[in-house]
Amino acid sequence: MSAIEKFHDILANRHQYAMDWKERTGGKVVGGLCTYVPLEIVYAAGMLPVRVLGTHEVQDVTDRYLFPTVCPFCRDTLAQGLKGRYDYLDGLAMGRTCSHIQGTFDNWRNYISTTLVYYIWFPCHRESPRAVDCLVGEYTGFKEALEKLTGKPITDDGLDKAIELYNTNRRLMKQVYELRKNEDPPITGAEAMEMVVTSQLMDVVEHNKLLEELLEELPDRKLDRETGLRLMMIGSEMDDIEFVQMMEELGCTIVIDEHCSGSRFFWDEVVPGEDRLAAIASRYVHRWPCPAVSSNFSDRFDRVLKIAQDWNVQGALVYQQKFCDPHEFDIPLLQQMFKEHDIPTLVLEFDVTIPFGQFRTRIEAFLEMAELEVL
Amino acid sequence: MITAGIDMGAQFIKVVILDDGKVTARTIIPTGFEPLEAAKKALDNAMKEAGISRQDIKSIVATGAGRKSVDFADSSITEVTADARGTIHLNPSVRTIVDIGAEEARGISCDAQGKVLDFAKNDKCAAGSGAFVESMARALEIKVPEMIAISLKSTKEAPINATCAVFAESEVVSLIHSKIEKADIAHAVHDAIASRVSSMVRRIPVEKDVALIGGVANNAAIVDVMQKHLGTEIVVPENPQYVSALGAALSAAS
Amino acid sequence: MTTNMKYKTKPLDCWQWGKELRLEAYQEFLKGHEEGKLMVLGCAATPYGMLAGLGDFVFLAGEPYGASVAADPPFSIPCMETYEAKGYSRDMCGYMRNFLGSMFLDKYYFTGGSFPKFDFAWSVRHCPAGHPKWHQIVSEYQDIPMNYIDDETMLAVDGDPEHRIDYVAGQYLDTIEWMEKVTGRTYDDEKGIEAMRTYFRNESLWGEICLLNGAIPAPLDIKSMFALMPISMLRRHEKIATDFLTTLRDEMKDRIANEIAAVATERYRMCMLTPPPWSFLKVFRYLETFGVVFVGTYVYLINSGEVKFLLDEGEAVPATVPEERPGWPEMKNREDLCRTIARWRAEHPFQSHLDIRKKEYIIIYNHWHGNAYLLLMNRGCVPMTTSMYDFQRDMQAHGIPVAMFEGNFADCRDIDETGVLDRLEAFLEGQGIQKLPSL
User: Which end of chain C is more exposed for a tag (fewer CB within 10 A), N or C?
Assistant: First the structure.
């Protein structure tokens, strides 16, 4: 089985993977809402951090908990908890970001019995020179809570090892992303997405091993179809592989992305320092931001434009989870920026309840339009 | 004492005439563009059926969306109150009422006296109403009764995800194109409605017995899927579309 | 002669004065530049008294401005259409949409003239992602500097909160330096401290006024509260506001002593949590025909006022100002000022954690002698609405009848008025409350 197939397989059976992991390691599993939970600290505690994600199926269990204008992703994740699909979690943590996922967290805390439910009061004023110190204070509390849960201390050695492993993971994924700069990328956007999403679900040691296999396979790999238009995907949470597959079948390849199940999640490394928690805190404060915690357009847009140019994209698909206000604040000016750089954009409002057919026509029309601009 | 209840629904006007707690007439006519005229006509028809004249009626109470337009009524009550009164009169053991009408669905929790304890209504969503069944039947090019009949024979699950009736219609079209059996599509339509409505109803305490009333309660396929979604048996009173009108007539008598 | 009139009623003696003070606040704003004052954009929760350290200033809070626009559909609709034409979404903050639309149209609501250009924007990140993002857009279009304080709910979440207070106090200190830089002015600590003392005093007064409405009959109704609140919301740092609020408080005490009601037909008292749908204030008038009086809304008790909730005793009492609180230092210098504001914000009910807020809702309901809660499921504000079902369940568990309706508080196109009235009527019917016979 190729590494790509293995990612696909594990993603399809992610709950089984986590339960098996518990079984074979005797460790505990901690779920994370959003990507502001410090994976390094959880891993150093001997636990498996997994991101809590939805399944894109229609459900009717969250209506009595969340108001209809809470974003579909946050409803979907809560639904998984309510349906008992995350019953194997020993803990659930979240870093403060937006009010939608906050709704998921609050309801999880009140209505789902996970042993440890922990809120990291992430300092959202990232530009403040005080933010790192504050986050160290948060991590101190979080670390203690994890230690209490496992009954074992988290050591500096353990933190160093976790930092090194996750940095390696980020570096390897970046190497894969580098190959997507090729005129004909050896990996599709959907496959790359499976790689990143599994990195949010797997033991980092095992994921690193698969990444090394992948990097050996890719130089000889050729896609059995034309690359077509080189597109970028940018927006709010996105792990809908089927959607990306559908899109790429229409005659394009996603060569780069900017979202929290892609580049935004893994781009920045921890710069090791004597104070381990401060080193980790600095990474999460200064990382590529979610618009929910960024109040300065160039902070995010400059990075977006740079990768768009470095990966030579011919169009950008800007999508958002319906009702996701942090992104809604950014999108009009983001579109304007792309326009100034002659990169056509298509904005899609995403909702698990909207069938693909609705999107297909719009994407086809967009591809036709973008092709004209490229010619 | 003879009283009348008029339910000014979005699609139909229903009239019930009550003589000392006994229903002596029931009439139904389309609401149309002249609801007041239609209401008069429905009442006339009902009086004929009961063999009484206007002077015999002690009191008339209107309910339903257009209740305020009935200038000849003595008073009006909301459909929530009317639903509870009517249902408890017919089935005293009911504690939760689900009313699915042409344009609206609601869930009502009540006590043994028919006092409303809590209620929930859908907001601007046709996908949880009778109008949706009709437009889906049109998309399938069959009549509603046929749609109900084939739906009950469905063997496969087909997904309809949209919460919005407009999108749902295009999904049905996609299903038709992908050669899904009509019966399975019909079932999917009913399932989609039941899913919307029951998720709204769960915002209030769902206690037994649960009754389904309103015009859509005549749809056996909906009753079937609603039972699955709410995880409980559902009671459908006789003439479910007249329950609101009955509630109004009862209120006129008290 | 009518039996409906249970109580005596009369207009407030200080009503006219209040109206003038309110209008002045909005009108003075435009003269800011001419008079050499700093023009600052903020949000209602910005502790803007601090700005006094920079000299004279005028301050505009985005939310009450958005609410004023929203209450006037002929002005509001073009604003929202202009905003949408720029590519912004309809489901975002309703206040912001009215505000930004008015800015894009370059029309200032209170005068019809040009929209003001601010010297800088300074907000508080109290609603997750909301206000700094709003100001981010203003800052981009007006090309002005912006800054904000991140201090959302610091207490009662996991972990020791002390470092959060340090972080917040530090942000205030940094902001003062930043303000000096962007305005070229020198910050006078004394003046900043003085204005914040007034600010705290006025908050406490407004809280006390809201609490007085627990009397039966209620001396003030919600409509008057909405009308007078801009004084406490926009002029909280001014001595004249202290004078007015003191007068209003004394007048309320007088009305209570003489059983003078805001609504003579009062027989059913309802409470809210949120602002009302601004384009649909007539809902309150309509409900008065049932003898329903709205005695208060939690959010306005605490977003320009402050009260102290005694959770164990189940009581709400007027809040003391920080310097009178045991263990709080006297404000002598900038560090004291910044730390005091950080602590005061942390302990303010505005920042109460969900679980505590639930208890406060019950306490204030009892204090106001409510008969029911009316909950607005607000499509125009996510943070306000996210946990509403949870609140509803908790209230019902306490035996409180709850009426609910859905709609947008600041978009007249997004509220089904007939549907709402219908729903409220059904609710009242269930409570045995009928329309009063016509007078």
Answer: N
